Amino acid sequence: MSHQVKGLKEEARGRVKGQARSSSPPTGDRLGRRPASKRGPKAQGAPGRRGAQRSQKERAGDSPRPESPQRKQTERRRLGEELGKQEPSKAEGTRKGRRKRGERSSLKEQTAPSKKEKEIPRKEEKLKRQKKPRSSSLASSGSGGESLSEEELARILEQVEEKKKLIATMRSKPWPMAKKLTELREAQEFVEKYEGALGKGKGKRLYACKMLLAKKWVKFKRDFDNFKTQCIPWEMKIKDIESHFGSSVASYFIFLRWMYGVNLVLFGLIFGLVIIPEVLMGMPYGSIPRKTVPRAEEEKAMDFSVLWDFEGYIKYSALFYGYYNNQRTIGWLRYRLPMAYFMVGVSVFGYSLMIVIRSMASNTQGSTGEGESDSFTFSFKMFTSWDYLIGNSETADNKYASITTSFKESIVDEQESNKEENIHLTRFLRVLANFLIICCLCGSGYLIYFVVKRSQQFSKMQNVSWYERNEVEIVMSLLGMFCPPLFETIAALENYHPRTGLKWQLGRIFALFLGNLYTFLLALMDDVHLKLANEETIKNITHWTLFNYYNSSGWNESVPRPPLHPADVPRGSCWETAVGIEFMRLTVSDMLVTYITILLGDFLRACFVRFMNYCWCWDLEAGFPSYAEFDISGNVLGLIFNQGMIWMGSFYAPGLVGINVLRLLTSMYFQCWAVMSSNVPHERVFKASRSNNFYMGLLLLVLFLSLLPVAYTIMSLPPSFDCGPFSGKNRMYDVLQETIENDFPTFLGKIFAFLANPGLIIPAILLMFLAIYYLNSVSKSLSQANAQLRKKIQALHEVEKSHKSVKGKATARDSGDTLKSSSKNATQLQLTKEETSPPSASQSQAMDKKAQGPGTSNSARGTLLPVSGHLPISRPPGVRTDSGHPPSQTHLWRSASGKSAQRPPH
Amino acid sequence: MGGSGSRLSKELLAEYQDLTFLTKQEILLSMYVVSAPHLVDNEQQARSGNEHTGTPIAERANGSPLSARAHRRFCELLPQEQQSVEASLRAQVSFERILSLPELKANPFKERICRVFSTSPTRDRLSFEDFLDLLSVFSDTATPDIKSHYAFRIFDFDDDGTLNREDLSQLVNCLTGESEDTRLSASEMKQLIDNILEESDIDRDGTINLSEFQHVISRSPDFASSFKIVL
Question: Locate the EF-hand domain: which residues (chain B) (predicted)?
Fold first, then answer.
């Protein structure tokens, strides 16, 4: 720390010196100058000797240099020269730069050391000074050229690396653009000049090539990024919503868009690898029984009402599991469709898991230590509560109101945190509310179970009505529609804080949806088992029919009988397709109910409120019905559960994902329109980010829960005997074994068998548990260390407080002066000039003292920057004397903050 | 450094992309916004030609002065065309026009934001590059560090490098809006500021400095997602 501070001081002085030099001859500066004077003889010698060859060398600058000992000298000289001319040419433009260069050649002999010192960009300057003593000692030992060049090459390499780092991090520096531009050009030019000089002999070309490639790569990456952002759809829509409703409502739409992307990938996977190969290469429709509508249904198979229920032709299409044949390979590609079907089913889940976990991880990366967020409640409210995306004055007014309320609330909380009023009543009400809600949940679960059971009865009966056919879906959708508001009403009893209330509400809706989904699944599973039990008899009937058909009398024996028409073959119920159809219907009805709810609940209500307000006895807009608010949590949960159904159903109905993509697409447009046309911003504006990972967590949970039934059916239910890619197998996963046995070499099969051995899997699971335990304990200890460090910092601050208050005040006064003087540099030029050399030295000292208090130093410099920042750039000292002071400030600031981070160890 | 018109803008674009967190489209869009006819005031634009030769870009952009009308049309039709590039680089837009942007209209800190990002001597105008800086800091991909740095400067109403009690009370007033009913009373204000200082002022000097501010902000899960302006 101390030597670093010293270094800063030294540097600051050096720079002040450099800038003042043109107006006044260099005077003694012990700290800054000593290394420079040490290297004086050597550096002076070099340009003097080569002064005559100057122009020639300059021309030869970019061409490859000859392989002689002189090469490196040339290089070195070129470096010096380059460093010399870099800054003026930047700041002054080419004309002045040329003039200056002329001057410089004459000045070179006398002022070479100091010139180098001041004109090299500051980062290098520091470095160079550290290096110089060593290289000068080398020079004095008389070896001159070679070893010294090696040294310098290394140095250049280091500088180039540093410049590159600077270029890469430039964008995150809080400088004004003009300054960033200058710095960037400077650094780029430097890198361009010198990276050619690096590498030796043959290596050089390679190096240049590498650099070129790297540059191209950067360019390509940037273009690709641009392209990527261009491809993101609905940017403008979401932005509109953001500005009207704040980031929380927009977060739903961003989530919807993300979901759309995920579904597109799943859609591509399923369509590309399953549906399209089947349609192109599989047996055509009508060739085998499973691909044909049975005779009994043929008449009505094209009716809309039948198609709407996903019966008829749709049922016997590639959209459903039953359509696929169990042929091992199809088409001239010998595409292994059953295998592909299985693998796609697995990879749908694999991909979804991966993407959800990845986005969760990237969400958590930003926030560190959620545990301590409690300690900053007021500060967070103060500093982070404004949503800068809000661009609508109405929303802004709401936001003002909600911020005020939250301020007042937290003040009141702070003042009387333990004020309790009739705790028994509250407790009683809460228990009552929970009781009611549990009753609701159980009731809805039972209702669904009852309805699914009844629908199985209906399915056995002939000509059932439309309502009876769709009872399950209707009941489920209605429950989803009416239960959440009911819960909200009940929750009013509980008298929770709104945020806690929201969490409870979310949890309850989640429980409702989950309960409904699982009851539905259980009832479905019952149905499946029933169908499986019937399967044997149907199998016998099928065999018997076929047998009878081929062996029946009354046919000419000489002509072989034409095979039985596939439509006439009796067939099983194919429970997989039935499950797929259920999910398909559920998805579609869910979508319709959502749209109708939006249309009725939001749009018509808004129309009513808007137009009936003219002739109504009370103010509809402000009073009872009012406009609807956008229900973020309900919509997000709906989306999540819909996705869960897609995940579950996509194995049995490959077309389901396609339907879902359509659904998401339409709901994006429809909901955007509905939100903008008929909703009002929330009374309380919640922040989005906090709940973002919460939603993702729910999604992960739902994904896991929807994985379970699918895995269960794959692992433990026998597939239907006459439909689907796995028909005829004992279990669906047998397709894996079959492929391994038939298509892979035997040793691979052995390896797989070995891997699947429980003796290997159980230890692997144990190992994972151990790893989790270990990582958990590591993170615990790290957070402990964190807490201790924080304590230490606090203690340190306490100690330094007294120190700093004295010096800090002095510095503040000092810098206050400078602010004034530099902002009015035209009028107070005299003052500034006076201050230039001696006071700024003292000031830098003051700054250095301040730098010892790590907390405060940054801020002081940070605010100095904008003041001096408006001066275009650091001018070369020789040209303009009047602005000598402000640049020195800028540099001081920059060197102090930038350097401390980038300083190489020495 | 010269070159043909199209190359110039390409290079500049590349540099701007290096220096900001914006993509090409965003830069072009922001250029369009700044140079859009209703935003540029032309007399200033003419003046700024001489006034701002200090910056390298302005120096290069000494093409023939376009008539206001032609410029207007150009900006309307071809925002990425060279003339408009140069003209809009020179142009400085006064605050009122920036403040009337829909993105900033409702923001209580709009004046502060403009002041912080302005580099003109009087700090009442924004050049195109200042505007780019602004958008870059408020973009989605900007680092939390630079966001919090600028947030600090925006909240530092008197530009003295620390957030003292006056800054904080001004900040509270900004956040609670202009209307009377949402204002906090004096005692509430005092209580609030006391609490904030209690939490954030680690070194107990009565003010919040940049590092204390960044310490607090870095703990906040919401900050980076809400400190954002999309054009």
Answer: 143-178, 188-223
A219 lies in the same domain as A263:
no
The structural domain count of chain A equals 3
Q: Could you tell me which of A477, A510, A489, A484 has the C-alpha nearest to residue A691?
A: A510
Residue of A383, A861, A879 to mutate, testing the B interface (most B Cβ within 10 Å of its Cβ)? A383
Residue A782 belongs to domain spanning: 757-801
CA dihedral over A114, A117, A120, A122, signed as positive or negative: negative
Give the CATH fold of the B143-230 domain: Recoverin; domain 1 (1.10.238)
Q: Which residue of A has its CA nearest to B192?
A: A411
pLDDT digits (tens, 9 = 90+) for A623-661: 777 788 887 777 888 898 899 989 999 999 999 999 999
Domain ranges of chain B: 65-142, 143-230
* Chain B residues within 8 A of A897 when measuring between CB atoms: none
Where would I find the H helices in A304-336? 304-308, 312-315
Model-level ipTM above the cut of 0.85: no
pLDDT tops 80 at residue A445: yes
**pLDDT digit string (tens) for A301-340?**
888 888 888 888 888 888 999 889 888 888 888 888 999 9
Residue B218 C-alpha, separation from nearest chain A C-alpha, in angstroms: 8
**CATH architecture for segment(s) B65-142:** Orthogonal Bundle (1.10)
CA atoms within 13 A on the CB side of A94: 3
A707 is a domain residue: yes
Residue A265 neighbours by CB under 8 Å, 6+ apart: A351, A355
The C-alpha angle B55, A216, A65, rounded to 5 degrees, equals 85
For A819, name the nearest residue in chain B, comparing CA atoms only.
B160
Does residue A729 form part of some domain? Answer: yes
| Average per-residue pLDDT for chain A | 71
What would the pLDDT profile of A408-440 be if each residue is shown by its tens digit?
Answer: 777 776 665 555 567 788 888 888 888 998 998
CA–centroid distance for A821 within its chain: 46
CA distance B61 to chain A (A): 13
